[in-house]
Each structure stands twice: as structure tokens, then as C-alpha cells.
């Protein structure tokens, strides 16, 4: 029997700020080249968890492994060099540079013409390759930053609310191109938009008050009574 070794593994990960526990004993495995979502109400600890994975925040207790390497106390720069790329909620691009120039600046190594074309096609920016980033509408700036993260050729791509501020059509297009990344890179997405999460068809973990209350396919999550209670505000 073939055993799939998790690319990213969290074991009893916790983070406290003084007496406040933002994340408590989170354990989860993210397999190679899978799509994953982390959902939960505001204040559930989603961004805090992502910050610990990418090294922006230190882990109070527990462990995070990337392959067989412990990264829980590692600097963000070193984690990025290992192959974990992060896109934050608010787009952060180089406004005076073109789309292509943004990709080249972000790339860990020189991008070939084919690699560049593939990223442009993936994030729906082929026709905007020479457009200055400042001239792009908000939705395409979001796509540009996802493309910049992909230009680092990561093994793990962390996305914090990639559909924030997007139209319905842009959100649908984002889901479509993220699904094309299955089998290419491990993607972990934080989201609030349930229609987007449903469309993504990803393994989904639910956080509430910093704890995992459910984990599984979106179909299982959607039919979970506790998850329904949390999102309806009954708990």
C-alpha cells in the first residue's frame, strides 16, 4: 500500500497572546499537491494559524513540519526559501512595474518564457502582461499577487482571502484557476465566501475559537450540525 507523506504537518499547534489563546492544539496534515480550505467565523484564529506556518508569528507550543523539517521557529525568509509562498489579504504589488515585471521581481529563479506564459495563463492575465500594475482593477491585482506567489515556484501556496473585494464573476474565475493547481502545488486557502469554498471542492478545516471543530470534504463539512450552528451564530 502506498502511503502519502504529508507535505505540511501541524501537531498540537497553539498560539497565545498573554492570557488569550488565539489558536489551541491544532493538528492537521496537508498532502502534496492538494487543495485545502480553512474556514471559520471572524476571530476563529485562521490568519494567526497561517502566520505561524509562514513564520510571521512564532508558535507558542506544538510543531509545524514541512516534509521532515521542523519550521516552527524558523524565520519567514528561510521558510519562503524552502518553498512556502504567502499571499496576504490586501494585494501588495509593485505599482509602477508591468505584470510581467512583477513576476520577474518575485521569482526565486529566472523564469523561462514558457514558465512565464503558464503563470500568466493560470491567473488570467495573459492579455495584461504589459499593463502597469497600478492600472489593473482590484480583482486583477488580486490575481497578479497570486501569480507573483506562483512565480516563486513554491511547493506550498498560502492564500489569505483571495476573493476579498472580487465580483461574483471574478470569484468564480478564481475558483476555476485554483482548481487547475491541484496536482501541481499544495494550496491552503483562508476564506469566508461559502459559495467559493463549495465551488473549490477542497479538503476543508473549520476553526472556531482557535480550535478545529471539523475537518473533511466540503460535503461533510456542509452537513455537519456543529458547523451549521457556528455559522448560524447558535454557538
From TrEMBL:
It comes from Hoeflea poritis. The keyword Cytoplasm does not apply. Keywords: ATP-binding, Nucleotide-binding, Transport. InterPro entries: AAA+_ATPase, ABC_AA/LPS_Transport, ABC_transporter-like_ATP-bd, P-loop_NTPase. PANTHER family: CONSERVED COMPONENT OF ABC TRANSPORTER FOR NATURAL AMINO ACIDS-RELATED, HIGH-AFFINITY BRANCHED-CHAIN AMINO ACID TRANSPORT ATP-BINDING PROTEIN. SMART domains: AAA. Residues 8-234 form the ABC transporter domain. This is ATP-binding cassette domain-containing protein. PROSITE patterns: ABC_TRANSPORTER_2. The keyword ATP-binding applies. The lineage of its organism: Bacteria, Pseudomonadati, Pseudomonadota, Alphaproteobacteria, Hyphomicrobiales. One of its GO terms (molecular function) is ATP binding.
Amino acid at each position: 500500500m502506498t502511503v502519502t507523506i504529508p507535505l505540511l504537518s501541524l501537531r498540537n499547534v497553539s498560539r497565545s497572546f498573554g492570557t488569550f489563546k488565539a489558536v489551541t492544539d491544532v493538528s492537521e496534515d496537508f498532502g502534496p499537491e492538494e487543495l485545502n480550505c480553512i474556514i471559520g467565523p471572524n476571530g476563529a484564529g485562521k490568519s494567526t494559524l497561517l502566520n505561524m506556518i509562514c513564520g510571521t508569528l512564532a508558535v507558542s507550543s506544538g510543531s509545524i513540519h514541512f516534509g521532515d523539517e521542523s519550521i516552527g521557529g524558523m524565520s519567514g525568509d528561510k521558510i519562503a526559501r524552502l518553498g512556502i509562498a504567502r499571499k496576504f489579504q490586501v494585494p501588495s504589488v509593485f505599482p509602477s512595474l508591468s505584470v510581467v515585471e512583477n513576476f520577474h521581481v518575485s521569482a526565486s529563479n529566472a523564469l523561462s518564457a514558457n514558465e512565464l506564459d503558464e503563470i500568466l495563463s493560470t491567473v488570467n492575465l495573459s492579455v495584461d502582461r504589459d499593463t502597469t500594475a497600478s492600472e489593473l482593477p482590484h480583482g486583477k491585482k488580486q490575481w497578479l499577487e497570486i501569480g507573483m506567489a506562483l512565480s516563486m515556484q513554491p511547493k506550498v501556496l498560502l492564500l489569505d482571502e483571495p476573493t476579498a473585494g472580487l465580483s461574483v464573476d471574478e470569484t468564480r474565475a478564481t475558483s476555476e484557476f485554483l482548481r487547475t493547481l491541484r496536482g501541481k502545488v499544495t494550496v491552503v486557502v483562508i476564506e469566508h465566501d461559502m459559495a467559493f469554498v463549495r465551488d473549490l471542492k477542497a479538503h476543508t478545516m473549520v476553526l472556531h475559537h482557535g480550535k478545529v471543530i471539523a475537518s473533511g470534504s466540503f460535503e461533510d463539512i456542509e452537513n455537519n450540525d456543529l458547523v451549521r450552528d457556528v455559522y448560524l451564530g447558535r454557538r
